[in-house]
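fyi for ur records
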Amino acid sequence: MTYNFNNEGLPFLPGSSFREAPDHLSSEFHLTHQDIADLTYGPSDQKPLKDFIPAHVSLDKKVLRYFAYFMEDILDSPEADYCVRPVVIYYYLVDDSMCIFEPRVHNSGRQQGQRVKRQRFPKNEHGEYYKWNDLNLSMDLDVYGVKYRITQCDAFTREFMESEGILVNEPEPMPQDPDGKHREKPQPSQSAPSKPDKLYQFLNMDGKVLRFFALFDDGGETRSVKIHYYLADDTVEIINAHEPNSSRDPFPALLHRLKLPKQIKKENFPSCVMEVSDEDVEYVSPKDFQLGKAINLLGRNFLLYDCDGFTKEYYQKNHPDMDMKSVEIPKKSDVLQDRKKEVPPYNGFGSLEDSLQNCLYLTPKPPKMNPLQRMEKQNEVLRYSARLESQNPEDEGRRFTLLYHLSDDMISIFEKSSSLCFLGGKFLKKTRVPKPGSTVENPQYYSPADFAIGATVEVFSHCFVLTDADRYVLKYLESNWDQIPSQTLDSVRQKLSVGTANQQPADHTDLAEPCQ
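which gave:
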């Protein structure tokens, strides 16, 4: 076998010579022994690659927590020269930021909480910042001129540092605070009985108030009040409990907050002294408030009939011998019912509900409606044709369309224009129409059961006689036959079947769309 080398113009070097096979051997094409799938996808025994998780996802919400303290000098204190203030250092791995928080101690007299907000703490003057591998136990952390001694860390922090190959130092105990030790020292006992500590009472009872509900006689009228007893300083406050629209004094305070004396202890107290001390005056205390009994406050007797839950718990814990049971009084509904009896009669202006609300409240409340009814029957209307029954001969030819809105049980009336110089238009806007003889206490309104063909509907002293109805009225009445009298349903059927029997449609020209 010979090959022709085509090396014209090229040097005879490896990679620069090409050989051509003879023409009779150019049909030989052998296959490679390597698998094509391995070339394309790699060997089948190759292990799958692990999913790549970026650092901001894997380190999110992972925080290292260290417990540390710093010392602060105390000036002009004979008991201690410095104090030890514990802090917690948080290191956020997601962005290498840190913050320092001092736990709050109640009534410590120090500004505690967040000392240094979250940020990257500078390590030196060369622009370097602290990293997680720079932190360890039993070391000092210098942050903006304050040295924090790290003493302990939590379990997650220790596990993370050991997994990264860092040897965690042994923890240190928190040094004892000389200032706190002095505060915890018990006070020297005194042989003579000490006076009540007003500061201790204020700090432990601040914000705790006993609330009583009472009645008192105000010139022949019984009025309800709220009595507040402040345990922080033994002061008493009396607040009026006015009923809505009672036309009482708008200022609620009947007695401003002050200490109420009961009586002077010494009978031979000199009258020339203008001021008295607390030792000479006995003030009202929680033991004087007993439910079911009257208490005299500044010459007025107040009958205590109830108190709130906190007050009952206080008496069960501190005064278990006192029985704090509520006393029954007239209900507010009974009082409201007595006020309704004094409501003046309906004058014909507005609806009955509006007139009643104006008599009961200074700001009238809208009548309550059924939201489900308004949603389900929003566009459902019963239409009737009617004529006006009047003694005036001019009203003989007037025709009206009466609409009953099922969504809110209101009635609207529209007058049709005619050739008798009646322009037509809105006669009555949507409103609830009461039946004749309805009272303000027990109003009765028209419903589809009252609209029989030929019936008279009295609308605010105007009488309308129903003459016709549309097909939807019959459909609605038949679907609610158990709520409709048979007389009303038969009258509508008889009226609508007249046109059907004569092979003519019923006359509904009066039921055209009303003028809006």
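Residues 486-501 form the longest helix (16 residues). thats all i got for now
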